[in-house]
Amino acid sequence: MNNSPIKLTLERRWVHKGVAIAFYLLLVCSALSIAFVYESTTLWYKIGMDKTMLRTGQLFGLLTAVQLLFQIILAVRGKSLEELFGVATLMRWHRANGIAISLFAMCHVALVLAPEGITNFPIGKKYWPEMVGVLLFLVILSMAVSSLFRQQLGLVYARWRVVHRVFGYSALVLTTVHVLFVSDSFRESVPKIALASGVTAVIIFVLIVKLKGRRKQVRRKT
Questions:
Q1: Average pLDDT over residues 1-5
Q2: Residue 48 and residue 99: Cα distance in Å, rounded?
Q3: Residue 139 in contact with residue 174, Cβ under 8 Å?
Q4: Contact 188/38 with Cβ under 8 angstroms?
């Protein structure tokens, strides 16, 4: 027979990779569609280039949120993903995705503020969701800069990793709060449920991977 066990395993792996990538692309497209299907009321009062910049800024914001969710998955990895794509590949993706998230966040901030003018940034208790967004933006930039220039900044790897992990989970919380309350698109039940489901899925994934890791450590000690 032509089909050997090794060939079948490789073919099955490619199928799994294809399914995983297709699922990822589907989630990205679904997230971006929210800006059109559940259009924010702020776009109703904009025309021309201002409306185009604001909508594009919202798309970059949604893309940033989605990539942050996947960034945590890439950081935690887990045995299944490591076997499917390889540790080295996942680490490269994690690094590249971190840079992409920073660029997407910058584009989001610039394009959302441009129609109103950078100097007219909303400040005050009334605009607390925007303030959360500012904090999130600073966290994202801090993570990116400290990752790219860790050695130049003289950061010890062990300490940097702990802080990086804390910032990563903080970014997840800040993203959820910012997205839910800054845009009226997420007042609708479907986008709200979609965001809650995505965040919950990531949290469950992290918990499962962590629990399996601890069980392995216990077995090694015994």
A1: 51
A2: 31
A3: yes
A4: yes
